[in-house]
Amino acid sequence: MPEWKSAAKSGLRRVLYPAYEARLARRLPTERLPKHVGVMLDGNRRWARAAGADAAHGHRAGAANITPLLEWCEEVGVEVVTLWLLSTDNMARPAGELNDLLRIIEGAVVDLATQRRWRLNPVGALDLLPAATSRCLKETANATRNVDGIIVNIAVGYGGRREIADAVRSLLHEQASKGTSLEELAGILDAEHIAEHLYTKGQPDPDLVIRTSGEQRLGGFLLWQSAHSEFYFCEAYWPDFRRVDFLRALRAYAERRRRFGA
Question: What job does this protein perform (predicted)?
């Protein structure tokens, strides 16, 4: 394509996209928007590879896109956001990349806490993380516990199977401390007992789960909580995820008829 045509096309996009984005926002039915949104921030490494950069560059670009996402959520009245930043499987990445990623996550979480706009809640197996990372997550959660804003679940060292196993383990310890026998527990155990011991206990389940990068699978994200969630898969890599992509996800959600397993 000739250079002048490419420049003209780019200029046209800059003019039309804000108008398109504004129209999307205006037409969203506010009464049908999600209250809890889970986001799988996927594609940082592939984004960096396409740019000829190392993985850390992609992770830094992805971290920079978190605050805009939370601001978009605020605009439409979302009350809980769960961000999957590091899975238990990711803990097996090469040591150099993992250390870089953990430092970037720590920096991103501290930045969110410093803004004093959102209440941070770490979810995951913190005992699997290095002491410095675990301490950072706990300290930022404590520093923001009285902030009156969106609850932001920071899923680091998170795996859905591990969460369910931890919930069952916690339930067994609780009942044992009360003197409940296994036979008695088996007679009364139901789904609600387990839900009360999940990392997200006391929160509503996610209404909408968004995954970026074109992958169409859960990978273990909120396995228990997402039983009745709606899913939206976006082609954009996470660093390229824009407000217009978020609004499209909300539009798709609002257009669906939720059946809750029926």
Answer: Catalyzes the condensation of isopentenyl diphosphate (IPP) with allylic pyrophosphates generating different type of terpenoids.
